[in-house]
Amino acid sequence: MKQYRDQGAVGALLDEYEKALTEVITILSNVNNQKLFTIVDDKTKDPDCRSIQTILTHVIRAGYCYVIEIRKSLGEQIDFVERKTLNSVKEYQTGLQEMFMYNVQLFEDYPDLHLEEKDPDKKIVVTWGQRYNIEQLLEHAIVHILRHRRQIERFLIQLNT
């Protein structure tokens, strides 16, 4: 039986984030390295959307960047992570799990973190210019995983036909 975190909204966000990542990791268990590396969309102008490998590289880096944006807003002097291309499905599965644990660590480091902020001037302005409170940024992170899971599923349909 699924164990749920008992941290109210934080627990719900972490549970849903973990669920979304688990779905991606499960899908990857049916992907070999050849499919991982295959360019599926050679017409896209977005280099993060050409193969399952480029999608996963983007997803992992973004997952760290969301937390780094939050940490920066709390006054931490921290650099964004570099994009790191991995070499196997197993490495990406591990990378997704490590990225999630980095998210969990945020709430261990800041157990009383206030999720909601209504004042637009106090919201986090992320690198792409949007304003979010912490809850909204984490919700965005979860949907980001879902959107790219769907993209990977669609790539697999193309690769399997």
Short recap of the structure:
The protein has a two-stranded antiparallel sheet with strand order 1-2. By secondary structure, it is mainly alpha-helical. Helix content is 59%, strand content 2%.
Verbal overview:
By secondary structure, the chain is mainly α. It has a single domain (8-159), classed as Four Helix Bundle (Hemerythrin (Met), subunit A). It contains five helices and two strands, in the order ααααββα. β1 (124-125) and β2 (131-132) form a beta hairpin. It starts with 7 loop residues before the first helix and ends with a helix. This is Damage-inducible protein DinB. It comes from Aquimarina atlantica.
Can you tag this structure with a few keywords?
single chain, 161 residues, mainly alpha, Four Helix Bundle (Hemerythrin (Met), subunit A), Damage-inducible protein DinB, DinB/YfiT-like
